[in-house]
Backbone:
């Protein structure tokens, strides 16, 4: 462990680089997220936000750099093995813009499946935990329904419950409300706000400026694969220092 890293840092990313062909998408990203902290990542489309999230749990393989998540450390340059990657991935729950629920399974089955496969929980154990989580996101009544009978906002809340079912140390959200009507987005944001209040560590790529300002502890603005601004939410949102960040915030507000 590196002495310069804050002891409380749950997620540590160091000198992360990723290119697709000749296109450099992440150009040396460093970040730390403390236990219980919410980090919002904002920035123009194409700036590398999704790629960063996907690199953190190795859905995308970084070219260079190091990631440490709750004690599991991976150096991308050293060709990490599959076992190490799976270990890292289990610590991070991911929620995407598209909910990706299995259409042929009930809501309950959607949430129980990975618990049985990954955590080898029994059916009844898994279902018990799934019901707890459905209560938490306000959807216990939907347990026996199929996903297509649920609204987009409900499906996204189910996807959140499914990610939580594996007891992740950190939740990664990639624009979880951008496919939803504003009203349905609000119910998802409210579940996320409660999660944050309960102390979940979260990294949230979002275009919801109000969420970034009011829920997150820190805000990071990306442009062209770099961090152009980082700091306490209120400060960054109200007083961005760089002209590039000011331009971006003016355009989206
Ligand atoms: P953001 O989420 O900020 O909109 P992305 O991380 O999705 O940005 O994409 C950053 C850049 O990388 C874009 O130019 C995008 O086209 C490119 N990119 C992302 N994924 C791939 C891929 N799998 N192959 C090639 N280019 C990609
Ligand atoms: Mg994206």
Residues:
């Amino acid at each position: 462990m590196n002495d310069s890293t804050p002891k409380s840092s749950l997620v540590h990313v160091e000198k992360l680089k990723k290119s697709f062909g000749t296109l450099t998408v992440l150009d040396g990203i460093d970040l730390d997220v403390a236990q219980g902290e919410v980090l919002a990542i904002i920035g123009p489309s194409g700036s590398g936000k999704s790629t960063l999230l996907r690199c953190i749990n190795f859905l995308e393989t970084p070219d260079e750099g190091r990631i440490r998540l709750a004690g599991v450390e991976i150096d991308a340059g050293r060709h990490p093995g599959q076992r190490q990657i799976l270990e890292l991935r289990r610590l991070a729950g991911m929620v995407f813009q598209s909910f990706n629920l299995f259409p042929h399974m009930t809501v309950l089955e959607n949430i129980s499946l990975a618990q049985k496969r990954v955590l080898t929980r029994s059916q009844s154990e898994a279902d018990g935990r799934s019901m707890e989580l459905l209560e938490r996101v306000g959807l216990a009544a939907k347990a026996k329904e199929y996903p297509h009978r649920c609204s987009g906002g409900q499906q996204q809340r189910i996807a959140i419950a499914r990610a939580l079912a594996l007891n992740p140390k950190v939740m990664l959200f990639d624009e979880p409300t951008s496919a939803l009507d504003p009203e349905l987005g609000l119910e998802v944001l409210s579940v996320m706000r409660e999660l944050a209040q309960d102390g979940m560590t979260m990294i949230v790529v979002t275009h919801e400026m109000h969420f970034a300002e009011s829920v997150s502890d820190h805000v990071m603005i990306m442009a062209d694969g770099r961090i152009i601004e980082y700091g306490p939410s209120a400060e960054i949102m109200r007083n961005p220092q760089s002209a590039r960040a000011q331009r971006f915030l003016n355009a989206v507000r």
Remarks:
- The two ends are 41 Å apart (CA to CA).
- The first strand starts at residue 9 and ends at 20.
- The CA atoms of residues 47 and 224 lie 5 Å apart.
